[in-house]
Automatic annotation (TrEMBL):
Entry keyword Ion transport: no
Superkingdom classification of source: Bacteria
Protein name in the entry: Heme chaperone HemW
Domain Radical SAM core intervals: 24-270
GO cellular component: cytoplasm
UniProt KW keywords: 4Fe-4S, Chaperone, Cytoplasm, Heme, Iron, Iron-sulfur, Metal-binding, S-adenosyl-L-methionine
GO MF annotation, one: 4 iron, 4 sulfur cluster binding
Subcellular location as annotated: Cytoplasm
Amino acid sequence: MGGPLPLGDPAPADGLLPASVVSGAAERAFGVYVHVPFCRVRCGYCDFNTYTSGELRGAKQSEYADQAIGEIRMSRRVMDASGLPEREASTIFFGGGTPTLLPAADLVAMLGAIRDEFGLAPGAEVTTEANPDSVDADDLVRLAEGGFTRVSIGMQSAVPHVLAALDRTHDPDRVPLVVEWARRAGLEVSLDLIYGTPGESLGDWRRSVDAVVAANPDHVSAYALIVEDGTKLARQIRRGELATPDDDLEADMYELADDAFEAAGYGWYEVSNWARGEEHRSRHNLGYWRGDDWWGVGPGAHSHVGGVRWWNAKHPAAYAERIAAGVSPAVGRETLDEPTRETERVLLQSRIREGIAIPSLHTAGRHAVAELIADGLVDAKAALGGRLTLTRRGRLLADAVVRKLIEG
């Protein structure tokens, strides 16, 4: 069910945003994230705000689409009342949880509400996450016909014992079938991987990487496993039932994947993401990394507009009660001060291939560039052109690079 919500100021019942959000809004892209908090089984490593059927305490999956549509309609009223300019949604992302546990018709209805309230920009990217065992060929056709353009499939691994350690329930042999069904439906395809699972060898990881390359998706994400406090996995490691992930092995896994993806025609564009050409990059996630505006719909969803961040009630039942009462589901928010916004800008933009304009860094950061080049963490040629871009070694040590850029 995820960790606690962050500390912040109470959010107003009407959801109205401060006047400061209007500044520069017309130049910022606008996206929508829809959180679908339902899962068939809770994965042992997961710290997201998700709920199995036994944890809903009166909330109903069958009523969720109407509740989310209620927030979408409310969001348009709030943005208008806050003085924000009209902006079409350029990207929409349905995440979770497992969005495709809902009927395709429900997902299409929520997308339709976003289209009705905001409009969709020409060529808008519309993604849903899916598990390999939560969709079939007909579902994918319905989604494509309803306006979805992209599916992000939670493959995680091609090795049964690794999937079992992660509490994933799908048959790895189903993944290439789902990729083929999605292609036939006209959808772009991303495959998502996790590496560093306890008990996963470098050979196991190579098998998963090879399976991804053979499936020939448009996009690949590969994230190192993070052991989150409070999860089943953390308890298993604490009891000695599973080994702690090994940092050196994870670095070897990253390098193996990067080599294999590059050889297969995928270019890295963010530390953990590769795409077959710029046109297949996740534009929605790039919006996060570039600091664009987005409205997060659903229980526990976070939003960001013009330096103001807010978050919704976590539990689906509490969320539903607020929507039914006509009250904003937001329960807390914060206005980011300039030092925080600058730290986040450096943290996020340094992770993408375009990097950061060196003159935009504070004095300490500019002075740190030469040392970062000498340490092999930053590309020297790009730096001569005025951009700070990570080398592969820098990608492996991205957090250390950020600390150096901020602290000097």
